[in-house]
């Protein structure tokens, strides 16, 4: 018994370390995509003075804490999202592993799919939060990979197409009515991708959950008088959260809700 627990813990320690490194890589990727660097060009650098970092300034989470979030030489603040992504990526990966081991019956293809979806959602979340833009190349790539994975998993084409038409159409309608003032084209593409990832009816749950998270955040912002928090938070971040919840627990949520109706 003790043996099994240790093996399980060891697995999560490995996943944590992989997740921290992945988070660090995603930070670099997002920043370099924004700054139009090539990801292969050179080593990590300070975002302010662009000095190349030495190894001990480049240890995820730890370096940020030791250097108190500042560059060692130019003393500029390192943006807080760097440590946020380094800390949250391993947590999401651990949840993905946990959900695939305990909620579902373990299926390597399903597990790979969930890891890919999680990584794409972290990129979309961070990029949209920082720059108010949902990267369309990530969404198109996501839509195609999702379709590929789900084709080999037990999804029907009808469920996927219905989901894509429903969620994509839902945002397209708002886009057309408001002439692009309420939401952007990025949200329409995101809705389309959500449908291909989750299928009908789980995509409906993901939309509802995204709106609930958005409403709760706005209320919290009003209550704490930090209005800028809700008005500046783009909708793609809420959609990413609603989507990851439903990638991991969508079927359970729908089943739970259906139990209420009966
Ligand atoms: Zn610097």
Automatic annotation (TrEMBL):
GO terms for cellular component: plasma membrane. It is a multi-pass membrane protein. Residues 116-218 form the Prepilin type IV endopeptidase peptidase domain. Residues 17-99 form the Prepilin peptidase A24 N-terminal domain. The chain crosses the membrane at residues 12-31, 82-103, 115-131, 159-177, 198-223, 235-254. The keyword Transmembrane applies. Pfam families: A24_N_bact, Peptidase_A24. Its main location: membrane. GO terms for molecular function: aspartic-type endopeptidase activity. InterPro entries: Prepilin_IV_endopep_pep, Prepilin_pept_A24_N, Prepilin_peptidase/N-MTase. Belongs to the peptidase A24 family. This is Prepilin peptidase. It comes from Candidatus Magasanikbacteria bacterium RIFOXYD1_FULL_40_23.
């Amino acid at each position: 018994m003790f043996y099994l627990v240790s093996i399980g813990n060891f697995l999560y320690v490995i996943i944590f370390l992989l997740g921290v490194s992945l988070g660090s890589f995603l930070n670099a990727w997002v920043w370099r995509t924004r700054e139009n660097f090539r990801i292969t060009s050179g080593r990590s650098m300070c975002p302010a003075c662009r000095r190349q970092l030495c190894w001990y300034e480049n240890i995820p989470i730890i370096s940020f804490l030791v250097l108190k979030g500042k560059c060692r030489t130019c003393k500029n603040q390192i943006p807080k999202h760097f440590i946020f992504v380094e800390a949250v990526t391993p947590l999401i990966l651990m949840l993905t592993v946990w959900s695939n081991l305990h909620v579902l019956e373990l299926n390597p293809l399903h597990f790979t799919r969930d890891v890919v979806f999680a990584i794409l959602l972290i990129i979309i979340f961070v990029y949209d939060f920082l720059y108010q833009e949902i990267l369309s190349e990530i969404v198109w790539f996501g839509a195609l990979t999702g379709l590929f994975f789900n084709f080999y998993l037990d999804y029907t084409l009808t469920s996927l197409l219905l989901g894509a038409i429903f969620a994509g159409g839902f945002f397209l309608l708002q886009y057309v009515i408001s002439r692009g003032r309420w939401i952007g084209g990025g949200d329409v593409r995101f809705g389309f991708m959500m449908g291909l990832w989750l299928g009908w009816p789980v995509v409906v749950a993901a939309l509802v959950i995204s709106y609930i998270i958005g409403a709760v955040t706005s209320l919290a912002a009003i209550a704490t008088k930090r209005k800028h928090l809700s008005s500046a938070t783009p909708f793609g971040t809420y959609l990413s959260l609603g989507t990851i919840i439903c990638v991991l627990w969508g079927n359970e949520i729908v089943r739970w809700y259906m139990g209420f109706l009966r």
